[in-house]
Model the fold of this input.
Amino acid sequence: MADDPTLGELKRLIERNHVETREAIAAIHQRLDRDVQAMNDRVDKTAASAVAREVYEADQRGLRDRVVRIESDLKSARATTRWAIGLCTTALLAVAALVVNLAAS
Done:
């Protein structure tokens, strides 16, 4: 019985346990509040730089339209280049034929 705590010691231990538990819970609440605030700040920052899906999809449609127009212009430029090369080749052949005819005369 000499090693058993007295009722006063038990009361003090219980009170200290209550105080430590309250302090631990308060520390947890403070950390959670800090973490939630940090998460809210990140969400607000992300939301500020985010765009609505409709805006994104409209931008993507515009981008696809521009790419299609550029591809069309490129095809047209290639066709024009081929036509110009053909015209130059024909003109050179005509001049060569004229020179051969003049030289043969």
Summary: Residues 53-104 form the longest helix (52 residues). The two ends are 144 Å apart (CA to CA). The helical segments are 7-49, 53-104.
